[in-house]
Structures are given as C-alpha cells and as structure tokens.
Amino acid sequence: MLVAGWSLTKACNLNCIHCYNASGRRDPRELTLEECLKVTDKLKSSGVVAVNFGGGECALRPDFIDLCKYIQSKGMIISYTTNGTTFDRIKDNLDLFHDIGVSIDFADPEKHDEFRGLKGVSKKATETLKVLVEKKVSNEIVTCLTKLNCSEQELQGIYDLANQLGVDSWRLNRFRANGRGIINEVELGLSKEDLKKAYTFLSNYQKRGTLCPEPIFRAAFGGTYYFPGDPSGNTSFRIQPDGEVSPSVFLSESGGNIKSKSIEEIMQSDIFKRIRDRKPKGKCKSCSAYSHCRGGDAGASYLEYAHFNGPDPLCWLDPKQKGSEVQQRFKSNWNVHELYLCTLYIPIKENLCTKV
Q1: How far apart are CA 289 and CA 220, in angstroms?
Q2: Which are the contacts of 186, defined by CB distance < 8 A and separation ≥ 6?
Q3: pLDDT at residue number 275
Q4: What does the buried/exposed string (b/e) look like for 227-246 if buried means 16 or more CB atoms within 10 Å of the residue's CB?
Q5: Residue 14 CA neighbour count, 13 Å, CB half
Q6: Does residue 306 contact residue 281 with C-beta atoms inside 8 Å?
C-alpha cells in the first residue's frame, strides 16, 4: 500500500516561523487542475490508497474541492492538514475528507498567533475544530514540537485543550530545520534532552497498544507499528507543487517529476533507493530496537548529516538498555499518517484508525 502526500500549492495566508517549505506565495510552476487530474490517475494505477494534502494552505486554490471530488471518485481516501483559517472554503464538502488535522502549537492564543504570524489564527483554528467535532468528521490537533513548546507546561496546556474541544487525537511532528525553519533553527531546534523530556511527559498519556509511527518514541516507551523505521520513501512519498516527488515530506530532493515519470520510476530513483537502503551506524549497530526503529527519522538524519543512516540526531537512548514492548501490527485498520511519516499520536478518543 502507498500513501501520497501532496503539497498542492505554496500559497499560504500565514507566515509561520517553522514552515518546512517556506510557504507564502503561490509558485507559478504549480500543476494545473488538468495536470492534477492526470496525476490522480497515476496515483490510482500505482496502488495509492490515500492522499494527504498539506502545506501550503491547499484550500486557497480555487480548484481544490474539484480535485478532491475527482480523487474520491477514484476510490482513494483524503486526509487534509490545515491551519484552520480557510474552513469556509471546505465546510460544504466535509464528506470528501476522511480526516482533517488542524494546526495548534500553543494553547495560549497569543503565543499561537505569534508563532503563526497572524492575530486571530488561534480562534479560527479552535472554531474549525469545534465544527469538525460537532459534525463528527474525524479530526486531530496537529502540533509542531519545538524548543518553544516542548515544556511540560505548554504540552499539558495543549492536551487539556484537546480534551476540552473533544477532538479525536493529538498528533505531534517534531521540528525539522528545513524551509523557513532553517533561519529559525537556533530558536526552534530541539536538543536530545528537550525531546527526551517532552516524550517522557507525553508517554503518560499514551495508551497501551496505540499506533506509533515515531520510531524513537516507540523504542523508548513501546507501541505498535505498521512499517519499521521511517515510512518515507517506502510506503509514502511527497508530491511538490510543481510535480517533483521527494521521498519525505521534510525534504525537497526529488526522484523525478510526476508529470513525465511513473511512480514506479520515481521510487527506483537514487534518492528513493538510498532512503530505503539505510545502514546501522554508531550506536545503532548494538541497539536492540534497531529491528523496528531502523535509525529513527530518515529525513532528520539527512538534514543533519546528508545521509539517511542512523542514529537519529535526537536519539538519546542507551543501546545497552532493554527496550520497551513493541509489536508490529498487520491489520486492515490503520491511520493515513501511520504509513506516511514519523509522527506521534496521543489518543484523545479511541477512533483513530481507517479501515481500507
């Protein structure tokens, strides 16, 4: 099974300091709707079962709903990550989406607005989530974990907000220094100790057996997984606005342009082969968790070391220490992001999985 991530546009109405692809203005080379429909046909014929739309803010494209309708007609499910400010553009077509994630990085509205670069964003994000909960659309709060919000106080605040709103789950992506994040790495970048403290706190809210596509968290605190290591380039890929295809949502390196190459050709390109051919380095060689961790986040390693081999640059684990209970799960129930990228789920409700 394959999951396609799709950055449909670089257009965005916000100026978030962490943005991994520096979204803002629309790229003049963006695929036209006609080209997007042809891409959709390619995805279907290549066995893609789900498409996740993410940054920029896809709903800013006037043809976004038309494309989603076509994707749905092909039998693929659609996941959408949004900043929550463009809800009016999709509110009449919520049936198109299997799940919608809304970005909230701080429970404090002023902090969130400052982080996202526009006053009132927090209010719109929470209002969007309230409607999704009311309409029973599968939903989640999505947080970028940075040095600014990794404290127990900040994380507790978001967890409490998630419960107050009644969302299905809370999903956290740790900061990667790419795009606009490069110039803000000193302010936002996590240390190993930052990640250890944050994950240790979050482990208090992780239920036994919860799916966990984040290898480092899984190695430290246990959980279940569908694919060992990082799904990037294995069960997933990312289509950029101009059609270039990268193996990871957090990388811009391309394996080819989907306008001229098939998915099969792209996934046999050098960058895709390299991300799949990871080798244990350093402490990974003696770590018992390597069988399911595979060196952690491949994209993070590439950004830090220019290669995909572990160990993950933020791994604090002692390879001599006995790992937590981890199980591989081969079932028909899985979440879109479980096959898409290294991410951490904190369940607020139980209905976290998709049946495909």
Answers
A1: 9
A2: none
A3: 96
A4: bbbbbbbbbbbbbbbbbbbb
A5: 29
A6: no
- The HSE-up count of residue 178 (CA atoms within 13 Å, CB side) is 18
Cis peptide before 56 (omega within 30 of 0): yes
| Measured torsion, CA atoms of residues 312, 316, 320, 325, in degrees rounded to the nearest 10 | -80
258 and 245 Cβ atoms separated by less than 8 Å: yes
Q: Which residues contact 73 (CB under 8 A, 6 or more apart)?
A: none
- Residue 183 pairs in a beta bridge with none
Q: How far is CA 274 from CA 271, 277, 303, 317, in A?
A: 5, 5, 14, 25
| Residue 153: Cβ-neighbour burial (10 angstroms; 0-12, 13-18, 19+) | exposed
What does the alpha-carbon distance between residue 141 and residue 183 come to, in Å, rounded to a whole number? Answer: 26
Length of the chain: 356
Q: What is the pLDDT of residues 317-353, one digit of tens each?
A: 999 888 788 888 866 667 788 889 999 999 998 644 4
Which residues of the chain have a pLDDT value below 50?
351-356
With CA atoms as reference, report the closest residue to 177 among 135, 211, 144: 144
Q: Which strands make up the sheet holding 236-239, listed edge to edge?
A: 245-246, 236-239, 2-6, 48-53, 77-82, 99-103, 138-145, 169-174, 344-347
Element spanning 48, H or E: strand 48-53
Contact 295, 284 (CB under 8 A): yes
Q: Helices marked H in the chain — which ranges?
A: 33-45, 64-73, 109-116, 121-134, 152-165, 185-188, 192-202, 215-221, 263-267, 270-276, 290-293, 298-305
Distance CA 218, CA 199 (A): 10
Of 306, 336, 296, 287, the residue nearest 6 (C-alpha): 336
For residue 79, give the 3-state DSSP assignment: strand
Burial of 320 (0-12, 13-18, 19+ CB in 10 A): exposed
The strand pairing partners of 139, in sequence order, are 100
d(CA 97, CA 61): 17
pTM as predicted: 0.94
For residue 239, the cross-strand partners are: 6, 245
